[in-house]
Amino acid sequence: MPWRNKQSHTASIIDDVKCDQSWRIFRIISEFTDGFERLAIIKDGISIFGSARLSPDHPYYLKTVELSTLLSKNGFSIISGGGPGIMEAANKGAYQQNQLSVGLNIELPMEQKPNPYQDISLDFRYFFVRKVMFVRYSMGYICMPGGFGTLDEFFEALTLMQTHKIYPLPLVLFGTDFWGGLMDWIKTKLIDYQTIGEEDLNLIKMTDDPEEVLEFMLEHRKWKNIQRELAEHQQAQIYCQELCSDKNLAL
User: Fold this and answer.
1) Which of 201, 173, 177 has its CA nearest to residue 187?
2) Taking the model in full, what pTM does it have?
3) What are the two backbone dihedrals, phi and then psi, of residue 145, each rounded to the nearest 5 degrees?
4) How confident is the model at residue 1 (pLDDT cuts 50, 70, 90)?
5) What is the pLDDT of residue 111?
6) At what angle are helices 11-18 and 2-9 packed, to 10 degrees?
7) Structural domains of the chain ordered from first start
């Protein structure tokens, strides 16, 4: 029976779930620690998601290389899932431009071989730790055509922004032919059933133009830099207030 084959492939994952929970916590903490330490150098990172199954001669693979190259030339670091297909194309464009190229690889029942275009390559056992790294070190998401994993990242980012758990970031669906049907469904069924508000659609941008994606990201980086300057100014004010308070106490 087919499900018996699936069981054998997932044995290692099931064993992990059954293992002593305290040791599992240590493993999770180590993945967070390693990720935070090694990815701290990323500035203005763009995460590009998409299918591992698209070959190097596929039009969307080639378009991903073009897009990644364009972003890299404008000072953006590129982050991908570290595997083949669209992920490889994303890393390849950055790597060829000597821009920081990051791969967040995941351990899967079907082995995922890391692509060779990574300056920083991290291996994760847990999807949720990996997702934190994408959100923490990205200032923009680009979803190329992909499967369930790409849809998962897309809807999670939407949920986090809708619920104000993260600052707004550009969320781009690249490929109107691929994503158009999904967007039509969102604009009709979800709106008709009032399960989302029309303003939530403002969080999503769909395009076929790499230059338009670059424009989105450049505009957001300007806003982000203003926020950074404000945060630094506020921190300086707090420091000065604490310093003055300490001097007054000393007097």
Assistant:
1) 201
2) 0.86
3) -55, 130
4) very low
5) 60
6) 60
7) 11-211 (3.40.50.450)
